[in-house]
Write a structure and sequence with these properties.
- With about 450 residues, this protein is α+β, with helices and mostly antiparallel strands.
- Among the domains are: about 75-155; about 160-240, no CATH class; about 345-450, no CATH class.
- It contains 12 helices and 20 strands.
- The chain has helices spanning about 30-45, 45-55, 75-115, 120-155, 170-175, 180-185, 200-215, 225-230, 235-240, 305-315, 335-340, 375; strands spanning about 1-10, 60, 65-70, 155-160, 190, 195, 220, 245-255, 255-260, 260-265, 275-285, 285-295, 325-330, 360, 385, 405-410, 415, 420-425, 440-445, 445-450.
- The strands form 7 sheets. Strands 1, 2, 3, 4, 7, 12 and 13 form a 7-stranded antiparallel β-sheet that branches. The protein has a 3-stranded antiparallel β-sheet with strand order 17-14-20, with no helix packed on it. A two-stranded antiparallel ribbon has the order 5-6.
- It starts with a strand and ends with a strand.
Length: about 450
């Protein structure tokens, strides 16, 4: 399987529903991504191709996870390092300018040598030294440009993965070198004489704070997944670093009328306009979402031709109001590629045991009836999500209809065995009549194998 990372930089707020119009999540599940891709593929006449590749496991997509570029953040330490480096580059540039001045002086010496034949040897010596200095200055200037380019091109993007549903707090208390344990051991009280002392109450309070901080973590940097599984992670620092964006609540007004007299609620056109609220999320300038795409090496699906128009139509809800617009790029991540270990895995999609002790879901997925067995759930740790919503189609029914609910395992769920999942038809009969067309819910599984 070929693996790509699609990095999304949003240019407008997003609305990823959480059951209410007034709420909005900062990330979205794989079925939301697939629905948006399917609608664009339908407009291009490629929906059957996309559906066939997805059902056959030749196209797998993960949930959308956060990324944060710390090099463009508000970290004072990073800014200080950057200023120091720019100061070094300025010094090198000044050195290059000084050597250029020496070159000018050498040229002047050569002109004077024409007037004084006795000083010709001295001027030639000066000119030779100047040429050497010029070569050195060019080398310094070239190195400065290379260093500056490397500084500007250096990527400090942190890609996050869902926190696995594995309890790690207990083992953290047993590791003296764990950062969380160090915080707990540092908890002290001050006696009346000003001396510091520790007690069991402080220790319990510190452990409670650690537990709350670990529970608050929703995503783990890909580079620290192993540290998390071994409890060697500082939850307080990770929560502090996770600055993805800001939720918002926007007030809008319903001005929809029928025949110029009554609105959709049956109120008179002379009545006051009805306000309503829309929950959204605005990302920081240095943050956004990404999702992982795996395609067949023999028959790769051209996803980029669908992403191109999708970035203008938007992702998520309230797109007609301008929500969900984004810019995208196809990137690579050595950390994620190493975790997925693509080269060594022959079956990323099937039920074959891949040899690792822990399999982590990277997409919200549901097993088929045949795959849902007691063996699959044995030793598993998971969260169930109820996926619902309305059908976005003018040919499905005369009135807006809901999709059939589908329960999926959330990304981050942990299993000892794998399953494939499927793309399910969640259409329902409308008033006893068959639906106008199928409605698909993506629930294929993408797996990350780690040694737990």
């Amino acid at each position: 399987m070929n693996t790509q990372i699609v990095k999304l930089k949003f240019t407008s707020p997003v609305h990823f529903g959480e059951g209410r119009l007034t709420s909005g999540a900062p990330t979205c599940a794989a079925d939301t991504l697939f629905s948006a891709l399917f609608i664009e593929a339908l407009a291009q006449g490629r929906s059957e191709e996309l559906l066939a590749c997805a059902k056959a496991g030749e196209l797998l997509i993960s949930d959308a996870f956060p990324w944060i570029d710390i090099s463009h953040g508000n970290n004072p330490q990073l800014r200080h390092c950057g200023l120091e480096r720019h100061s070094e580059l300025d010094s090198e540039s000044q050195a290059a300018e000084r050597h250029s001045e020496l070159d000018s002086e050498s040229q002047a010496a050569e002109r004077h040598s024409e007037l004084d034949s006795e000083s010709q040897a001295a001027s030639l010596e000066i000119a030779g030294q100047a040429r050497n200095d010029k070569a050195a200055s060019l080398e310094i200037a070239g190195q400065a440009r290379n260093d500056k380019a490397a500084h500007n091109d250096k990527s400090d993007v942190t890609y996050y993965l869902p926190k696995p549903y594995i309890a790690v707090e207990k083992s953290a208390r047993n590791q003296e070198d764990a950062p969380a344990m160090q915080i707990a051991n540092a908890s002290t009280n001050e006696n009346a004489d000003g001396s510091a002392s520790t007690n069991s109450n402080n220790s319990e309070q510190a452990q409670s704070q650690i537990k709350k901080a670990m529970k608050k973590l929703k995503y783990i940097p890909a580079s620290m997944l192993s540290s998390y599984l071994t409890s060697n992670i500082d939850p307080f620092q990770e929560n502090e670093n996770f600055k993805l964006g800001t939720p918002s609540l926007t007030t809008k007004v319903n001005l929809t009328y029928v025949n110029g007299e009554d609105d959709v609620q049956g109120a008179s056109s002379q009545s006051d306009a009805k306000p309503y609220h829309v929950g959204g999320f605005t990302y920081e300038d240095n943050a956004g979402l990404y999702f992982i795409v795996q395609t067949s090496a023999q028959n790769p699906f051209d996803l980029q031709s669908i992403l191109e128009p999708l970035q203008y139509s938007g992702l998520g809800g309230k797109r007609s109001s301008g929500y969900g617009r984004f810019e995208y790029e196809i990137v690579s991540s050595a950390e994620i590629s190493e975790l997925l270990n693509i080269k060594d895995k022959k079956d990323m999609n099937g039920t074959k045991d891949m040899g690792g002790s822990v399999k982590i879901l990277l997409s919200s997925a549901a097993p088929t009836n045949k795959e849902l067995t007691e063996e699959l759930l044995q030793g598993a740790s998971y969260q169930l999500l109820r996926r619902s919503g309305f059908v976005q189609s003018d040919t499905y029914a005369l009135t807006q209809q809901k999709k059939r609910d589908l329960y999926t395992f959330a990304a981050g769920s942990v299993f000892c065995q794998t399953f494939s999942g499927d793309v399910f038809d969640v259409s329902m009969t409308v008033g006893g009549n068959p639906p106008g067309h199928p409605v698909y819910r993506y629930a294929k599984a993408m797996w990350l194998e780690v040694q737990g």
